[in-house]
Request: fold
Amino acid sequence: MKKLKSILSKKTILISLSLIISISIGSLILKQKEEVDGWFGYWENISNIDECIGYDELTSDNTVVEMLGSHVQCVKNKEYEKAAHLFKLSSAYSIFDSKRVADISAHQAAIVLRMYSRYPFYDLYDEKTMQEEYRKLDEELMAISNDRNEFCDTLKKIGYPTYHPEYMINHGMGGREHDGKGIKIDFNAQLEWDLIVGEYCV
Reply:
């Protein structure tokens, strides 16, 4: 049990660090926006989401892109609890996608998406205000880690992703054996999802 708590604690720290790193390097990434948009179109995909979706409204068809786009709108609306749940759910879904996508070079797509989800705030806030907004979000993420019941209920309710993870597959360089659609041969979706839920919720 102590070992499990230690693992979960480390995950919480990593999620927090992910937010901090995204904010810290955001200015540098923003300068490269035009070039990268031409490659992947991540910015357009995220910015096309204009609704703060309640995590209780999500289904297994909602992609990581949709969750992060909605997460952005929730932060804009100062609905930090919703934003935190969406951010964490997108993390769980991106972990699942990285387990099923055969091309290892594609797995960093979720990290890139999280970076891109910071873009709207460079137009809205100065750096100090943006850091304050994400401090509030970080507090909600910590609250979820301290009381995971609602989050875990959502994970179990919506189940593993049923969309095709094109956002991740298109990010990669190709390679490795797959089913013709980029998914690992003999991938056991339910088993892998149960392992992810177990890591988050046990």
About this structure: The chain has twelve helices and no strands.
